[in-house]
Design a protein that fits this description.
Distance between the termini: 29 Å
Number of strands: 5
Strand order of the largest sheet: 2-3-1-4-5
Shape: elongated
Number of helices: 11
Order of helices and strands: HHHHHHHEHHEEHEHE
Helix content: 55-70%
Strand content: 5-15%
Largest sheet: 5 strands, mixed
Number of domains: 2
Length: about 375
């Protein structure tokens, strides 16, 4: 289980920790694809209105036909995006879709301007608006930057030369305006992404506080109960193995009585840290209550769970957090989910096995197929 995260955020508003970034993108995918779908619908509708306006002003001319052939594919793609973006299941695919759409926006605008013999300064306003529109889409900042920079270079390379009455100072002023626009869009985009990720971290930490035990930092009983319900349902549906380990510290009351509760708390913390080394990210390790712990092992059969319990038991016995010569040991009950089990029956079965380990001499692992001499 991954107990530490690098919460640092890079300049472009992304987590430095790749796994954390992937978690954030997976959680925000639903919102991103809805935003993409509806923005594409709006953009397509706006261009359709421009097409109507072109028909009114230019009529059935060759120019109108050429412009229609350029704008119509973008309108169709916008409608297609409205329906397909909402069903995308991977953020990577959404990024490539948005990037392609941004590139198509730029190409459509440049090709439209190319059809006119001369342009007016509304072309520059349209250019600024298209640039701003690109940054409304929830794409990766670096991709939006790259596409908008190429778009800017191509625009100032050719279409601006067709502006009526263009003078050099006006040209350079237009370049300056676009540079300011790009700076604003990039700073705003990066800042927004940073704020979103900080909110994600805050929500995660709040969730951790509600699901973690304050002393040991592992999951609490409520979180464990919820996870147990989910994994039992999963095992029932897909017939995957599921194992449960319950263990507690032998004679823990004597530790508290002899050394005090501060030392007792340290024992609980060190045992928790010890166990973390042996479990996977998918496993659920929780403080069940007092000195009792639970480990839920998805996709794990009884034999594998018993071996894990033996390794944990041996490791705990090797590391004594007390100065007292008496070693700290633990007793374990191990059971596997059966098709007719409920949550209560599985817990009861495992707890009975733990009780057998305690009454059979302690420092033992007892499972459904083991005996007290194991």
């Amino acid at each position: 289980m991954d107990w530490t995260k690098d919460y640092r955020i890079a300049w472009f508003g992304e987590f430095i920790d790749k796994r954390l970034e992937d978690e954030y993108l997976a959680e925000s995918l639903d919102a991103s694809r809805k935003i993409t779908a509806y923005i594409a619908l709006v953009f397509g509708s706006i261009l359709a209105l421009f097409l109507v306006q072109s028909y009114i002003t230019e009529g059935e001319t060759v120019l109108f036909t050429r412009i229609t052939l350029i704008r119509l594919p973008f309108i169709i793609v916008s409608m297609v995006m409205f329906y397909t973006a909402r069903n995308i299941t991977k953020h990577k695919n959404l990024v490539w879709m948005i990037s392609s759409y941004q590139a198509m926006m730029a190409i459509t605008y440049l090709l439209t301007l190319k059809q006119y013999d001369s342009l007016n300064f509304f072309s520059i306003i349209g250019f600024l608006i298209v640039t701003l529109a690109m940054y409304l889409l929830p794409n990766k900042t670096v991709f939006s930057q790259f596409i908008s920079l190429i778009f800017s270079f191509l625009f100032f390379l050719y279409p601006t030369r067709k502006l009526e009455g263009l003078q050099s100072y006006v040209f350079f002023r237009s370049v300056a305006y676009q540079a300011i626009m790009l700076m604003y869009c990039n700073i705003n985009n990066c800042w927004t992404e940073r704020v979103k990720r900080k909110a994600f971290i805050a929500n995660r930490e709040l969730l951790d506080l509600s699901s973690k035990d304050s002393l040991t930092g592992i999951y609490n009983r409520k979180k464990f109960d919820d996870a147990l319900d989910q994994w039992i349902s999963f095992s029932q549906r897909y017939n995957h193995p599921l194992a449960l380990i319950l263990f507690d510290i032998d004679d823990f009351k004597q530790v508290n009585d002899k050394h005090g509760h501060i030392v007792g708390d340290r024992v609980l913390q060190e045992i928790s840290d010890n166990v973390k080394q042996f479990i996977r990210e998918a496993d659920i390790f929780a403080r069940w209550g007092g000195d009792e712990f639970a480990i839920l092992l998805p996709n794990t059969d009884l034999k594998q769970a018993e071996k894990l319990a033996e390794r944990i038991k041996s490791n705990i016995a090797k590391h004594n957090p007390l100065t007292d010569p008496k070693k700290i040991t633990c007793s374990f009950g191990v059971a596997e989910y059966a098709p007719n089990d409920t949550k209560q029956s599985l817990l009861r079965k495992t707890d009975d096995l733990l009780l057998k380990a305690k009454t059979g001499g302690k420092d033992k692992v007892v499972s459904c197929f083991s005996n007290l001499g194991s």
